[in-house]
TrEMBL record, chains A, B:
Superkingdom of the source species: Bacteria
InterPro entries linked to this entry: Alpha/beta_knot_MTases, RsmE, RsmE_MTase_dom, tRNA_m1G_MTases_N
PANTHER family: 16S RRNA (URACIL(1498)-N(3))-METHYLTRANSFERASE, RIBOSOMAL RNA SMALL SUBUNIT METHYLTRANSFERASE E
Protein name: Ribosomal RNA small subunit methyltransferase E
Family designation: Belongs to the RNA methyltransferase RsmE family.
Organism: Halioglobus japonicus
EC number(s) per entry: 2.1.1.193
Length: 235, 235
């Protein structure tokens, strides 16, 4: 926890922040904070700064917040991802928030197992929890929007063209395609397929919507490694 | 399992390969292979090709190997990594093999918890198992060498200068440094520190050995995400 995140509703009428959950445990056990110490804090979707520890014991810590910094800018990157298996989805949600991806769209594909759409990880509260873990890691406060699109065709035909407009739009796909570019000055939209890849019909639809198909090289990477290495390459 | 890996010692005197472990289960349950089908196979540290299924049942599968392909080239990249916590180490071992990193050196640092050196993950058989998982993913057969250096100073003073020679050598470190370059024509040596970063003494020693300190941007990434995004950026 590189940043203690809190919601505005957690502030008392005196403007003080009381924490009594896992964050308290972390302050005590990992950071060994005492009265008078300061802690990096951030209001979810708001400003960051520090909290001065006014009191702390095993029951509750009371912090006096000073919120004088803006959160870091998001990357100018929209990620469109075929819904991965739940275990990988958790890691990708954390990484999306950690890297500062601006938006995540989870889409369907023939090779997305239907059961993946039933995972409790897609519960909005659970998505939020994993995103918060990523924000805590990289010291950001702003939750990126995550949308689910359970039907491929309406997404690529009706929504994708608007997302593509004005952006370098790339579909990372295995095969003999030009290599993925190494940087991006303007905004980017990046599409990553399921394990096994999009089927040819889906590739054609994504290309028709304005995406350029690029290759990541001869190796088949796990989806999470493909995503993080593409982010490092593009940004 | 995108590639079924086997050891030379598993071949019978008739040159046939019998599998009766998790690989058999995978052939049956995930790939649904039957007699006459072919399977992508590779000899560990040897050639790749395909195996024709001569017989298969719930006890054993017998494959006739044709090994007519070289494994993919490794990346010209040596990774030097402060030993991460065991959970992350497992994922990094897989990723190192998956991306085709040429060599991995695990080193000590003041911020590496001493207990990390006791993890069973560092058992050579366990390291091998995680590396094999990465090779199976990206269809490679060659196990990258992994060395452990439990003392920082002898490593940076006695071994590192030889590794650095003739290579672009980069230390990815948080702070106000030039950004990490975006590609590498020659060989690269990449050093990544522990959670919390190398201490100033360690940074100075690494720089004295010939490493150039570079930044990954303002966000603090988890070690595994830092490594995979650096690989995507450099390669």
């Amino acid at each position: 926890m590189n940043l203690l995140l809190f919601s505005r509703s957690e502030l008392g009428s005196d403007g003080l922040l009381s924490v009594d959950d896992g964050r308290l445990q972390h302050l005590l056990e990992v950071h060994g904070k005492e009265v008078g110490d300061t802690v990096r804090i951030g209001e979810i979707n708001g400003r960051m700064g520090h909290g001065k520890v006014l009191s702390i014991n095993t029951e509750v810590a009371v912090l006096e917040p000073t919120l004088d910094q803006l959160p870091p800018a998001k990357l100018p990157l929209i990620l469109v991802l075929a819904l991965p298996r739940p275990k990988m989805l958790r890691r990708i949600l954390r990484a999306v928030a950690e890297f500062g991806v601006a938006e995540l769209h989870l889409i369907n594909s023939l090779r997305v197992e239907k059961s993946f759409w039933q995972t409790p990880v897609l519960d909005p509260d659970t998505i939020r929890e994993y995103l918060l873990q990523g924000l805590e890691q990289s010291r950001d406060t702003v939750l990126p929007p995550v949308s689910c699109h359970r039907r491929f065709k309406p997404f690529v035909e009706d929504l994708l063209p608007d997302l593509v407009r004005g952006r370098q739009s790339l579909l990372a796909h295995p095969g003999n395609y030009p290599p993925c570019p190494r940087s991006t000055d303007s905004g980017t939209l990046l599409v990553v397929g399921p394990e096994g890849g999009f089927i040819p019909y889906e590739v054609a639809k994504l290309e028709a919507a304005g995406c350029k198909t690029v290759s990541l090289g001869p190796r088949i990477l796990r989806v999470e490694n493909a995503v993080t290495s593409l982010l490092g390459r593009l940004l």
